[in-house]
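Hello,

Following up on my earlier ticket. Below are the two sequence lines again, exactly as submitted.
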Amino acid sequence: MSHQRFVRERGGPPGARETRWTWLLLIPLIGTLIPPLYNTHDPELFGVPFFYWYQMLWIPASVLVTVIVYRATRRGR
Amino acid sequence: MIFAAVNAVELTVFIALFGFVTVLGFVAARWRRAKELNNLDEWGLGGRNFGAWITWFLVGGDLYTAYTFVAVPALLFGVGALGFFAVPYTIVVYPMVFLVAPRLWSVSHRHGYVTPADFIRGRFGSGSLALMVAITGIAATMPYIALQLVGIEAVLKAMGILGEWPIIIAFGVLAAYTYQSGLRAPALIAFVKDSLIYLVVIVAIIYIPTQLGGFDDIFAAADKKFSGTDAPTDGVLLGNAAVLGYSTLAFGSALALFLYPHSVTGVLAARSRDTIKRNMAALPAYSIMLGLLALLGYMAIAAGIQPIVSDGKPDPNTIVPLLFDDMFPSWFAGIAFAAIAIGALVPAAIMSIAAANLWTRNIYKEYLKPDATPEDEARSSKICSLVVKAGAVVVILLLDPQFSIDLQLIGGVIILQTLPAIVLGLYSRFYHAWGLLAGWACGLAAGLYMLYDTPNPTTGKTHFGGPQYALSNFGFDTKSSIYTGLIALLVNLVVATAVTLGLRAAKRPFGPDETRPDDYVAEAGEPGVEPLPATAEEEKEAIRPR
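Thanks for your patience. The regenerated structure is below:
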Protein backbone atom coordinates (compact mmCIF):
# COMPACT_ATOMS: atom_id res chain seq x y z
CA MET A 1 0.00 0.00 0.00
CA SER A 2 2.71 2.42 0.99
CA HIS A 3 4.06 2.78 -2.51
CA GLN A 4 0.70 3.00 -4.17
CA ARG A 5 0.85 6.74 -4.23
CA PHE A 6 3.74 6.70 -6.65
CA VAL A 7 1.86 4.78 -9.28
CA ARG A 8 1.21 6.82 -12.36
CA GLU A 9 -2.46 7.15 -13.09
CA ARG A 10 -2.13 8.28 -16.65
CA GLY A 11 0.44 6.39 -18.68
CA GLY A 12 2.74 7.56 -21.42
CA PRO A 13 5.68 9.97 -21.65
CA PRO A 14 5.27 13.65 -20.81
CA GLY A 15 2.94 15.27 -23.29
CA ALA A 16 3.09 18.54 -25.18
CA ARG A 17 1.42 20.41 -22.33
CA GLU A 18 4.26 19.43 -19.97
CA THR A 19 6.90 20.38 -22.50
CA ARG A 20 5.39 23.84 -22.84
CA TRP A 21 5.60 24.39 -19.10
CA THR A 22 9.26 23.43 -18.95
CA TRP A 23 10.18 26.44 -21.10
CA LEU A 24 9.51 28.50 -17.97
CA LEU A 25 12.74 27.06 -16.54
CA LEU A 26 14.64 29.36 -18.90
CA ILE A 27 13.50 32.44 -16.96
CA PRO A 28 16.07 32.18 -14.10
CA LEU A 29 18.84 31.66 -16.66
CA ILE A 30 17.90 34.80 -18.56
CA GLY A 31 17.53 36.75 -15.32
CA THR A 32 20.96 35.88 -13.94
CA LEU A 33 23.25 35.14 -16.88
CA ILE A 34 23.14 38.59 -18.50
CA PRO A 35 25.22 40.76 -16.14
CA PRO A 36 24.65 44.06 -18.04
CA LEU A 37 21.08 43.84 -16.70
CA TYR A 38 22.24 44.28 -13.13
CA ASN A 39 25.87 45.36 -13.07
CA THR A 40 25.13 48.69 -11.34
CA HIS A 41 25.62 50.11 -7.88
CA ASP A 42 22.22 51.80 -7.52
CA PRO A 43 19.61 51.37 -6.18
CA GLU A 44 21.14 50.23 -2.92
CA LEU A 45 19.24 48.12 -0.38
CA PHE A 46 20.41 48.44 3.25
CA GLY A 47 23.77 49.60 1.93
CA VAL A 48 24.11 46.60 -0.41
CA PRO A 49 24.67 47.48 -4.11
CA PHE A 50 22.03 46.42 -6.68
CA PHE A 51 24.42 43.88 -8.23
CA TYR A 52 24.31 41.78 -5.08
CA TRP A 53 20.74 41.97 -3.88
CA TYR A 54 19.31 41.62 -7.37
CA GLN A 55 21.04 38.26 -7.82
CA MET A 56 20.07 37.13 -4.32
CA LEU A 57 16.46 37.96 -5.19
CA TRP A 58 16.63 35.48 -8.06
CA ILE A 59 17.06 32.64 -5.58
CA PRO A 60 13.44 32.76 -4.32
CA ALA A 61 12.31 33.70 -7.84
CA SER A 62 13.91 30.57 -9.32
CA VAL A 63 12.36 28.47 -6.56
CA LEU A 64 8.97 29.88 -7.51
CA VAL A 65 9.50 29.05 -11.19
CA THR A 66 10.65 25.51 -10.40
CA VAL A 67 7.68 24.92 -8.09
CA ILE A 68 5.25 26.15 -10.76
CA VAL A 69 6.76 23.83 -13.37
CA TYR A 70 6.82 20.96 -10.87
CA ARG A 71 3.15 21.37 -10.05
CA ALA A 72 2.07 21.87 -13.65
CA THR A 73 3.90 18.80 -14.92
CA ARG A 74 3.21 16.43 -12.04
CA ARG A 75 1.65 13.27 -13.32
CA GLY A 76 -1.54 11.68 -12.14
CA ARG A 77 -3.18 15.01 -11.35
CA MET B 1 55.26 24.83 19.69
CA ILE B 2 52.29 23.22 18.02
CA PHE B 3 49.90 24.87 20.44
CA ALA B 4 51.59 28.26 20.20
CA ALA B 5 48.47 30.41 20.33
CA VAL B 6 45.61 27.96 20.72
CA ASN B 7 42.51 29.12 22.54
CA ALA B 8 41.43 26.39 24.98
CA VAL B 9 37.69 27.13 24.80
CA GLU B 10 37.71 27.25 21.01
CA LEU B 11 39.60 23.98 20.77
CA THR B 12 37.38 22.21 23.32
CA VAL B 13 34.16 23.15 21.49
CA PHE B 14 35.75 22.14 18.20
CA ILE B 15 36.90 18.75 19.45
CA ALA B 16 33.57 18.05 21.19
CA LEU B 17 31.57 18.65 18.00
CA PHE B 18 34.05 16.74 15.90
CA GLY B 19 33.86 13.83 18.34
CA PHE B 20 30.06 13.92 18.22
CA VAL B 21 29.90 13.52 14.43
CA THR B 22 32.49 10.75 14.60
CA VAL B 23 30.17 8.77 16.86
CA LEU B 24 27.28 9.55 14.49
CA GLY B 25 29.36 8.27 11.59
CA PHE B 26 29.77 4.86 13.19
CA VAL B 27 26.19 4.68 14.48
CA ALA B 28 24.97 5.42 10.93
CA ALA B 29 25.66 1.80 9.95
CA ARG B 30 22.60 0.85 12.02
CA TRP B 31 20.43 3.68 10.74
CA ARG B 32 17.57 2.64 8.40
CA ARG B 33 19.26 -0.72 8.27
CA ALA B 34 18.51 -3.19 5.53
CA LYS B 35 18.66 -7.00 5.73
CA GLU B 36 21.61 -7.19 3.38
CA LEU B 37 24.45 -4.68 3.80
CA ASN B 38 27.07 -6.31 1.62
CA ASN B 39 26.18 -4.87 -1.76
CA LEU B 40 26.66 -1.57 -3.52
CA ASP B 41 23.01 -0.56 -3.40
CA GLU B 42 23.26 -0.52 0.38
CA TRP B 43 26.85 0.59 1.04
CA GLY B 44 27.22 2.88 -1.95
CA LEU B 45 23.70 4.28 -2.30
CA GLY B 46 22.29 3.96 1.22
CA GLY B 47 19.63 1.49 0.04
CA ARG B 48 18.40 3.83 -2.75
CA ASN B 49 15.73 4.83 -0.32
CA PHE B 50 16.34 8.37 0.93
CA GLY B 51 13.26 10.56 1.12
CA ALA B 52 12.90 14.28 0.45
CA TRP B 53 14.48 15.59 3.67
CA ILE B 54 17.46 13.28 3.75
CA THR B 55 18.13 13.88 0.07
CA TRP B 56 18.00 17.63 0.66
CA PHE B 57 20.60 17.45 3.40
CA LEU B 58 22.70 14.88 1.58
CA VAL B 59 22.85 16.65 -1.78
CA GLY B 60 23.19 20.07 -0.11
CA GLY B 61 25.98 18.75 2.09
CA ASP B 62 27.53 17.23 -1.00
CA LEU B 63 27.52 20.28 -3.27
CA TYR B 64 28.18 23.09 -0.83
CA THR B 65 31.50 21.92 0.50
CA ALA B 66 33.84 23.32 3.12
CA TYR B 67 36.12 24.42 0.35
CA THR B 68 33.23 26.41 -1.14
CA PHE B 69 32.63 28.12 2.17
CA VAL B 70 36.28 29.05 2.47
CA ALA B 71 37.15 29.74 -1.16
CA VAL B 72 34.14 31.79 -2.32
CA PRO B 73 34.58 34.55 0.33
CA ALA B 74 38.33 34.36 -0.33
CA LEU B 75 37.61 35.04 -4.00
CA LEU B 76 35.51 38.11 -3.17
CA PHE B 77 38.25 39.20 -0.79
CA GLY B 78 40.75 38.90 -3.63
CA VAL B 79 38.96 40.05 -6.79
CA GLY B 80 35.53 41.32 -5.73
CA ALA B 81 32.35 40.94 -7.82
CA LEU B 82 33.78 38.21 -10.04
CA GLY B 83 33.78 35.83 -7.05
CA PHE B 84 30.01 36.29 -6.71
CA PHE B 85 29.58 34.06 -9.82
CA ALA B 86 28.92 31.27 -7.33
CA VAL B 87 25.43 32.72 -6.78
CA PRO B 88 24.12 32.74 -10.39
CA TYR B 89 25.94 29.40 -10.79
CA THR B 90 23.90 27.80 -8.03
CA ILE B 91 20.71 29.52 -9.24
CA VAL B 92 20.80 28.24 -12.82
CA VAL B 93 21.95 24.73 -11.97
CA TYR B 94 18.66 23.55 -10.45
CA PRO B 95 16.21 24.37 -13.26
CA MET B 96 18.55 22.52 -15.65
CA VAL B 97 19.01 19.53 -13.36
CA PHE B 98 15.24 19.48 -12.74
CA LEU B 99 14.87 18.29 -16.35
CA VAL B 100 17.81 15.89 -16.57
CA ALA B 101 18.26 14.20 -13.17
CA PRO B 102 14.81 12.54 -13.02
CA ARG B 103 15.55 10.79 -16.34
CA LEU B 104 18.86 9.50 -15.00
CA TRP B 105 17.16 8.35 -11.79
CA SER B 106 14.44 6.47 -13.66
CA VAL B 107 16.70 4.64 -16.10
CA SER B 108 19.14 3.81 -13.29
CA HIS B 109 16.41 2.30 -11.14
CA ARG B 110 15.01 0.22 -14.00
CA HIS B 111 18.44 -1.20 -14.80
CA GLY B 112 20.21 -1.12 -11.42
CA TYR B 113 22.85 1.41 -12.50
CA VAL B 114 25.04 2.65 -9.64
CA THR B 115 27.29 5.07 -11.53
CA PRO B 116 26.94 7.37 -14.55
CA ALA B 117 29.34 5.05 -16.42
CA ASP B 118 26.92 2.12 -15.82
CA PHE B 119 24.30 4.11 -17.71
CA ILE B 120 26.69 4.83 -20.59
CA ARG B 121 27.52 1.10 -20.78
CA GLY B 122 23.86 0.22 -21.07
CA ARG B 123 22.84 3.04 -23.37
CA PHE B 124 25.63 2.92 -25.92
CA GLY B 125 26.71 -0.70 -25.47
CA SER B 126 30.30 0.49 -25.38
CA GLY B 127 32.77 -0.56 -22.70
CA SER B 128 35.36 1.96 -23.87
CA LEU B 129 32.96 4.89 -23.61
CA ALA B 130 31.93 3.75 -20.12
CA LEU B 131 35.60 3.45 -19.15
CA MET B 132 36.18 6.98 -20.43
CA VAL B 133 33.34 8.33 -18.29
CA ALA B 134 34.57 6.37 -15.25
CA ILE B 135 38.19 7.51 -15.52
CA THR B 136 37.16 11.12 -16.15
CA GLY B 137 34.91 10.98 -13.10
CA ILE B 138 37.61 9.54 -10.84
CA ALA B 139 40.23 12.01 -12.12
CA ALA B 140 37.91 14.97 -11.52
CA THR B 141 36.85 13.80 -8.06
CA MET B 142 40.28 13.04 -6.56
CA PRO B 143 41.52 16.65 -6.40
CA TYR B 144 38.10 17.71 -5.12
CA ILE B 145 38.57 15.39 -2.12
CA ALA B 146 42.05 16.82 -1.56
CA LEU B 147 40.56 20.32 -1.56
CA GLN B 148 38.31 19.40 1.35
CA LEU B 149 41.53 18.94 3.30
CA VAL B 150 42.52 22.45 2.30
CA GLY B 151 39.29 23.62 3.96
CA ILE B 152 40.12 21.79 7.20
CA GLU B 153 43.70 23.04 7.03
CA ALA B 154 42.53 26.66 6.78
CA VAL B 155 40.49 26.24 9.97
CA LEU B 156 43.32 24.55 11.83
CA LYS B 157 45.75 27.28 10.80
CA ALA B 158 43.38 29.95 12.07
CA MET B 159 43.07 28.13 15.39
CA GLY B 160 46.84 28.14 15.64
CA ILE B 161 47.21 24.37 15.23
CA LEU B 162 50.14 23.60 12.99
CA GLY B 163 51.60 20.36 11.78
CA GLU B 164 50.31 17.44 9.80
CA TRP B 165 48.96 15.03 12.36
CA PRO B 166 45.53 16.66 12.97
CA ILE B 167 44.64 16.27 9.28
CA ILE B 168 45.83 12.68 9.25
CA ILE B 169 43.67 11.93 12.31
CA ALA B 170 40.62 13.69 10.86
CA PHE B 171 40.81 11.80 7.59
CA GLY B 172 41.69 8.53 9.33
CA VAL B 173 38.50 8.76 11.39
CA LEU B 174 36.51 9.72 8.31
CA ALA B 175 37.91 6.77 6.37
CA ALA B 176 37.01 4.37 9.18
CA TYR B 177 33.35 5.28 9.48
CA THR B 178 32.84 5.60 5.73
CA TYR B 179 34.25 2.08 5.40
CA GLN B 180 31.84 0.85 8.02
CA SER B 181 28.66 2.78 7.23
CA GLY B 182 28.91 3.72 3.55
CA LEU B 183 26.65 6.50 2.29
CA ARG B 184 24.58 6.40 5.47
CA ALA B 185 27.41 8.10 7.40
CA PRO B 186 27.58 11.35 5.39
CA ALA B 187 23.77 11.36 5.10
CA LEU B 188 23.40 11.37 8.88
CA ILE B 189 26.30 13.77 9.53
CA ALA B 190 24.93 16.17 6.90
CA PHE B 191 22.09 17.04 9.30
CA VAL B 192 24.59 18.25 11.89
CA LYS B 193 26.81 19.93 9.32
CA ASP B 194 24.07 22.00 7.77
CA SER B 195 22.40 22.94 11.04
CA LEU B 196 25.75 24.27 12.27
CA ILE B 197 26.53 26.06 9.01
CA TYR B 198 23.11 27.74 8.87
CA LEU B 199 23.49 28.81 12.50
CA VAL B 200 26.94 30.28 11.91
CA VAL B 201 25.99 32.08 8.69
CA ILE B 202 22.87 33.63 10.19
CA VAL B 203 24.75 34.85 13.25
CA ALA B 204 27.66 36.08 11.14
CA ILE B 205 25.52 38.00 8.67
CA ILE B 206 23.60 39.76 11.43
CA TYR B 207 26.31 40.27 14.02
CA ILE B 208 29.46 41.10 12.03
CA PRO B 209 28.00 44.05 10.05
CA THR B 210 26.89 45.68 13.31
CA GLN B 211 30.50 45.54 14.46
CA LEU B 212 31.80 47.01 11.21
CA GLY B 213 29.37 49.93 10.84
CA GLY B 214 26.84 48.32 8.48
CA PHE B 215 26.92 47.25 4.84
CA ASP B 216 27.56 50.84 3.65
CA ASP B 217 30.94 50.86 5.33
CA ILE B 218 31.71 47.27 4.37
CA PHE B 219 31.16 47.90 0.64
CA ALA B 220 32.98 51.25 0.86
CA ALA B 221 36.02 49.50 2.36
CA ALA B 222 35.95 46.90 -0.42
CA ASP B 223 35.61 49.58 -3.06
CA LYS B 224 38.59 51.44 -1.61
CA LYS B 225 40.73 48.30 -1.68
CA PHE B 226 39.93 47.46 -5.32
CA SER B 227 40.34 51.07 -6.55
CA GLY B 228 43.86 50.90 -5.14
CA THR B 229 44.88 48.05 -7.47
CA ASP B 230 45.58 48.35 -11.19
CA ALA B 231 44.03 45.01 -12.18
CA PRO B 232 41.18 45.63 -14.66
CA THR B 233 38.98 42.73 -13.55
CA ASP B 234 38.62 43.42 -9.83
CA GLY B 235 36.10 45.73 -8.17
CA VAL B 236 32.80 45.76 -6.29
CA LEU B 237 31.10 45.72 -9.69
CA LEU B 238 32.17 43.75 -12.76
CA GLY B 239 34.63 45.49 -15.06
CA ASN B 240 33.69 45.45 -18.77
CA ALA B 241 36.30 42.80 -19.44
CA ALA B 242 34.90 40.53 -16.74
CA VAL B 243 31.22 40.43 -17.78
CA LEU B 244 31.44 37.59 -20.29
CA GLY B 245 33.76 35.60 -18.05
CA TYR B 246 31.31 35.99 -15.16
CA SER B 247 28.26 34.62 -16.95
CA THR B 248 30.07 31.85 -18.84
CA LEU B 249 31.80 30.72 -15.66
CA ALA B 250 28.44 30.58 -13.85
CA PHE B 251 26.76 28.74 -16.72
CA GLY B 252 29.62 26.32 -17.41
CA SER B 253 30.10 25.47 -13.74
CA ALA B 254 26.37 24.80 -13.47
CA LEU B 255 26.54 22.41 -16.45
CA ALA B 256 29.47 20.59 -14.81
CA LEU B 257 28.08 20.30 -11.28
CA PHE B 258 25.73 17.40 -11.76
CA LEU B 259 28.14 15.50 -13.98
CA TYR B 260 30.41 14.94 -10.98
CA PRO B 261 30.05 11.35 -9.77
CA HIS B 262 29.29 12.46 -6.20
CA SER B 263 26.29 14.51 -7.37
CA VAL B 264 25.00 11.49 -9.28
CA THR B 265 25.44 9.36 -6.15
CA GLY B 266 23.26 11.81 -4.20
CA VAL B 267 20.60 11.75 -6.90
CA LEU B 268 20.52 7.96 -7.28
CA ALA B 269 20.19 7.47 -3.52
CA ALA B 270 16.79 9.18 -3.61
CA ARG B 271 13.80 6.90 -3.23
CA SER B 272 11.73 8.33 -6.07
CA ARG B 273 11.72 10.56 -9.10
CA ASP B 274 9.39 12.91 -7.31
CA THR B 275 11.90 13.28 -4.44
CA ILE B 276 14.48 14.63 -6.88
CA LYS B 277 12.12 17.07 -8.52
CA ARG B 278 11.04 18.44 -5.16
CA ASN B 279 14.66 18.79 -4.14
CA MET B 280 15.52 20.83 -7.20
CA ALA B 281 12.95 23.33 -5.98
CA ALA B 282 14.21 23.24 -2.38
CA LEU B 283 17.99 23.13 -2.82
CA PRO B 284 18.36 26.85 -3.70
CA ALA B 285 17.91 27.51 0.03
CA TYR B 286 21.60 26.66 0.22
CA SER B 287 22.35 29.33 -2.37
CA ILE B 288 20.99 32.01 -0.05
CA MET B 289 23.46 30.80 2.54
CA LEU B 290 26.24 30.79 -0.05
CA GLY B 291 25.42 34.34 -1.17
CA LEU B 292 25.49 35.62 2.41
CA LEU B 293 28.69 33.74 3.08
CA ALA B 294 30.31 35.25 0.01
CA LEU B 295 29.84 38.71 1.51
CA LEU B 296 32.05 37.65 4.42
CA GLY B 297 34.92 38.30 2.00
CA TYR B 298 34.09 42.01 2.01
CA MET B 299 33.57 41.98 5.76
CA ALA B 300 37.09 40.60 6.09
CA ILE B 301 38.35 43.55 4.03
CA ALA B 302 36.46 46.02 6.22
CA ALA B 303 37.74 44.31 9.38
CA GLY B 304 41.30 44.64 8.09
CA ILE B 305 41.96 40.88 8.08
CA GLN B 306 45.31 39.85 6.63
CA PRO B 307 45.61 36.26 5.37
CA ILE B 308 48.06 33.98 7.18
CA VAL B 309 51.36 33.76 5.39
CA SER B 310 52.85 30.30 5.14
CA ASP B 311 55.97 29.37 3.18
CA GLY B 312 56.24 32.99 2.14
CA LYS B 313 52.83 33.02 0.38
CA PRO B 314 49.65 34.58 1.81
CA ASP B 315 46.87 31.96 2.02
CA PRO B 316 43.59 33.78 1.20
CA ASN B 317 41.63 30.68 2.27
CA THR B 318 42.37 31.60 5.88
CA ILE B 319 40.43 34.88 5.82
CA VAL B 320 37.00 33.49 6.79
CA PRO B 321 38.34 31.49 9.76
CA LEU B 322 40.41 34.52 10.80
CA LEU B 323 37.35 36.77 10.56
CA PHE B 324 35.39 34.40 12.82
CA ASP B 325 38.32 34.24 15.22
CA ASP B 326 38.48 38.02 15.30
CA MET B 327 34.76 38.76 15.63
CA PHE B 328 33.20 35.96 17.66
CA PRO B 329 33.67 34.99 21.31
CA SER B 330 35.86 31.90 21.44
CA TRP B 331 33.05 29.40 22.15
CA PHE B 332 31.17 30.51 19.05
CA ALA B 333 34.32 30.64 16.96
CA GLY B 334 34.80 26.99 18.02
CA ILE B 335 31.33 26.15 16.68
CA ALA B 336 32.05 28.02 13.44
CA PHE B 337 35.33 26.20 12.94
CA ALA B 338 33.71 22.85 13.65
CA ALA B 339 30.98 23.70 11.12
CA ILE B 340 33.58 24.25 8.39
CA ALA B 341 35.61 21.16 9.29
CA ILE B 342 32.52 18.92 9.45
CA GLY B 343 31.46 20.56 6.21
CA ALA B 344 34.60 19.06 4.69
CA LEU B 345 33.87 15.54 5.94
CA VAL B 346 30.44 15.10 4.34
CA PRO B 347 31.43 15.81 0.73
CA ALA B 348 34.78 14.03 1.17
CA ALA B 349 32.92 10.89 2.24
CA ILE B 350 30.40 11.05 -0.62
CA MET B 351 33.12 11.80 -3.18
CA SER B 352 35.24 8.88 -2.05
CA ILE B 353 32.20 6.58 -2.21
CA ALA B 354 31.34 7.82 -5.70
CA ALA B 355 34.92 7.32 -6.92
CA ALA B 356 35.01 3.88 -5.31
CA ASN B 357 31.77 2.87 -7.02
CA LEU B 358 33.14 3.94 -10.40
CA TRP B 359 36.27 1.90 -9.80
CA THR B 360 34.30 -1.17 -8.71
CA ARG B 361 31.55 -1.16 -11.31
CA ASN B 362 33.33 0.12 -14.36
CA ILE B 363 36.93 -1.06 -13.97
CA TYR B 364 37.11 -3.89 -11.40
CA LYS B 365 33.97 -5.74 -12.45
CA GLU B 366 34.19 -4.82 -16.12
CA TYR B 367 37.84 -5.70 -16.69
CA LEU B 368 39.40 -7.43 -13.68
CA LYS B 369 36.76 -9.70 -12.20
CA PRO B 370 33.70 -10.05 -14.44
CA ASP B 371 32.19 -12.72 -12.16
CA ALA B 372 32.32 -10.51 -9.04
CA THR B 373 29.44 -11.14 -6.64
CA PRO B 374 27.58 -8.26 -4.93
CA GLU B 375 29.71 -9.00 -1.83
CA ASP B 376 32.90 -8.70 -3.90
CA GLU B 377 31.68 -5.38 -5.26
CA ALA B 378 30.96 -3.99 -1.80
CA ARG B 379 34.36 -5.14 -0.52
CA SER B 380 36.17 -3.65 -3.50
CA SER B 381 34.37 -0.30 -3.07
CA LYS B 382 35.09 -0.16 0.65
CA ILE B 383 38.79 -0.75 0.13
CA CYS B 384 38.93 1.68 -2.77
CA SER B 385 37.31 4.41 -0.64
CA LEU B 386 40.20 4.01 1.83
CA VAL B 387 42.79 4.20 -0.94
CA VAL B 388 41.19 7.33 -2.40
CA LYS B 389 41.26 9.15 0.94
CA ALA B 390 44.80 8.06 1.72
CA GLY B 391 45.78 9.35 -1.71
CA ALA B 392 44.18 12.73 -0.99
CA VAL B 393 46.08 13.06 2.30
CA VAL B 394 49.37 12.16 0.64
CA VAL B 395 48.77 14.67 -2.17
CA ILE B 396 48.03 17.48 0.28
CA LEU B 397 50.89 16.71 2.65
CA LEU B 398 53.59 15.97 0.09
CA LEU B 399 52.69 18.40 -2.66
CA ASP B 400 51.94 22.10 -2.69
CA PRO B 401 48.18 22.62 -1.96
CA GLN B 402 48.22 24.89 -4.99
CA PHE B 403 48.66 21.70 -7.00
CA SER B 404 45.25 20.43 -5.85
CA ILE B 405 43.66 23.77 -6.62
CA ASP B 406 45.10 23.58 -10.14
CA LEU B 407 43.92 19.98 -10.47
CA GLN B 408 40.42 20.91 -9.36
CA LEU B 409 40.38 23.68 -11.95
CA ILE B 410 41.28 21.07 -14.54
CA GLY B 411 38.71 18.69 -12.99
CA GLY B 412 35.83 21.09 -13.71
CA VAL B 413 36.89 21.44 -17.34
CA ILE B 414 37.36 17.72 -17.94
CA ILE B 415 34.17 16.56 -16.21
CA LEU B 416 32.29 18.88 -18.55
CA GLN B 417 33.59 16.78 -21.44
CA THR B 418 31.34 13.90 -20.32
CA LEU B 419 28.24 16.06 -20.90
CA PRO B 420 27.57 14.98 -24.50
CA ALA B 421 27.63 11.29 -23.55
CA ILE B 422 25.64 11.55 -20.31
CA VAL B 423 23.18 14.40 -20.81
CA LEU B 424 22.57 14.10 -24.54
CA GLY B 425 22.61 10.32 -24.07
CA LEU B 426 19.65 10.66 -21.70
CA TYR B 427 17.64 12.18 -24.53
CA SER B 428 18.85 10.59 -27.73
CA ARG B 429 20.83 7.84 -29.38
CA PHE B 430 21.92 10.11 -32.23
CA TYR B 431 25.59 10.01 -31.23
CA HIS B 432 27.83 7.05 -31.99
CA ALA B 433 30.03 5.86 -29.14
CA TRP B 434 33.17 6.48 -31.23
CA GLY B 435 31.98 10.00 -32.03
CA LEU B 436 31.53 10.69 -28.33
CA LEU B 437 34.97 9.24 -27.59
CA ALA B 438 36.58 11.37 -30.29
CA GLY B 439 34.74 14.47 -29.03
CA TRP B 440 35.80 13.75 -25.47
CA ALA B 441 39.46 13.35 -26.48
CA CYS B 442 39.50 16.57 -28.53
CA GLY B 443 37.59 18.55 -25.85
CA LEU B 444 39.98 17.27 -23.22
CA ALA B 445 43.07 18.15 -25.24
CA ALA B 446 41.72 21.61 -26.11
CA GLY B 447 40.72 22.26 -22.48
CA LEU B 448 44.06 21.21 -21.05
CA TYR B 449 45.96 23.24 -23.62
CA MET B 450 43.93 26.38 -22.90
CA LEU B 451 44.33 25.99 -19.13
CA TYR B 452 48.07 25.53 -19.58
CA ASP B 453 48.15 28.59 -21.80
CA THR B 454 46.43 30.83 -19.22
CA PRO B 455 48.77 33.03 -17.20
CA ASN B 456 47.74 34.94 -14.08
CA PRO B 457 49.53 38.27 -13.75
CA THR B 458 48.16 38.85 -10.22
CA THR B 459 49.69 35.71 -8.73
CA GLY B 460 52.64 35.69 -11.13
CA LYS B 461 51.80 32.21 -12.46
CA THR B 462 52.58 31.53 -16.09
CA HIS B 463 50.38 28.43 -16.49
CA PHE B 464 47.06 27.20 -15.05
CA GLY B 465 46.36 30.79 -13.99
CA GLY B 466 42.57 30.46 -13.95
CA PRO B 467 39.42 29.10 -15.59
CA GLN B 468 39.03 31.91 -18.15
CA TYR B 469 40.58 31.89 -21.59
CA ALA B 470 41.19 35.28 -23.23
CA LEU B 471 39.33 35.76 -26.51
CA SER B 472 42.33 37.67 -27.86
CA ASN B 473 43.95 34.24 -28.25
CA PHE B 474 41.51 33.60 -31.08
CA GLY B 475 42.33 36.91 -32.73
CA PHE B 476 39.42 38.91 -31.29
CA ASP B 477 40.25 42.50 -30.40
CA THR B 478 38.87 42.41 -26.88
CA LYS B 479 39.98 42.04 -23.27
CA SER B 480 37.06 39.67 -22.55
CA SER B 481 37.51 36.04 -21.69
CA ILE B 482 35.26 32.96 -21.63
CA TYR B 483 35.09 30.00 -19.28
CA THR B 484 37.63 27.52 -20.68
CA GLY B 485 35.36 24.52 -20.08
CA LEU B 486 32.66 25.90 -22.39
CA ILE B 487 35.11 26.42 -25.26
CA ALA B 488 36.38 22.87 -24.77
CA LEU B 489 32.78 21.60 -24.69
CA LEU B 490 32.11 23.34 -27.99
CA VAL B 491 35.13 21.62 -29.56
CA ASN B 492 33.87 18.34 -28.09
CA LEU B 493 30.36 18.73 -29.55
CA VAL B 494 31.60 19.73 -32.99
CA VAL B 495 33.94 16.73 -33.20
CA ALA B 496 31.37 14.30 -31.75
CA THR B 497 28.75 15.45 -34.24
CA ALA B 498 31.11 15.36 -37.23
CA VAL B 499 32.45 11.89 -36.43
CA THR B 500 28.93 10.57 -35.75
CA LEU B 501 27.67 11.92 -39.09
CA GLY B 502 30.65 10.31 -40.82
CA LEU B 503 30.00 6.94 -39.14
CA ARG B 504 26.32 7.14 -39.98
CA ALA B 505 27.12 7.90 -43.61
CA ALA B 506 29.53 4.93 -43.64
CA LYS B 507 26.72 2.82 -42.09
CA ARG B 508 28.89 1.66 -39.19
CA PRO B 509 26.88 -0.43 -36.71
CA PHE B 510 25.86 1.14 -33.39
CA GLY B 511 26.31 -0.68 -30.07
CA PRO B 512 23.20 -2.32 -28.57
CA ASP B 513 20.97 -0.07 -26.44
CA GLU B 514 19.47 -1.96 -23.49
CA THR B 515 17.19 0.93 -22.46
CA ARG B 516 13.72 1.75 -23.77
CA PRO B 517 12.07 5.19 -24.05
CA ASP B 518 9.72 4.57 -21.12
CA ASP B 519 12.69 3.67 -18.86
CA TYR B 520 13.47 7.38 -18.68
CA VAL B 521 10.17 8.43 -17.18
CA ALA B 522 9.52 5.47 -14.85
CA GLU B 523 8.55 6.28 -11.27
CA ALA B 524 9.01 4.22 -8.11
CA GLY B 525 6.30 1.61 -7.74
CA GLU B 526 6.05 0.96 -11.46
CA PRO B 527 6.95 -2.35 -13.07
CA GLY B 528 10.69 -2.86 -13.11
CA VAL B 529 11.30 -0.24 -10.44
CA GLU B 530 11.53 -2.39 -7.41
CA PRO B 531 9.68 -1.03 -4.38
CA LEU B 532 11.96 -1.20 -1.35
CA PRO B 533 10.64 -2.23 2.04
CA ALA B 534 9.64 0.92 3.91
CA THR B 535 10.11 1.31 7.65
CA ALA B 536 7.80 3.25 9.95
CA GLU B 537 10.35 6.06 10.21
CA GLU B 538 10.58 6.45 6.45
CA GLU B 539 6.84 6.51 6.18
CA LYS B 540 6.78 9.56 8.40
CA GLU B 541 9.22 11.52 6.36
CA ALA B 542 8.11 10.27 2.95
CA ILE B 543 6.52 12.84 0.74
CA ARG B 544 2.77 12.67 0.31
CA PRO B 545 1.39 14.49 -2.70
CA ARG B 546 -1.94 15.98 -1.83
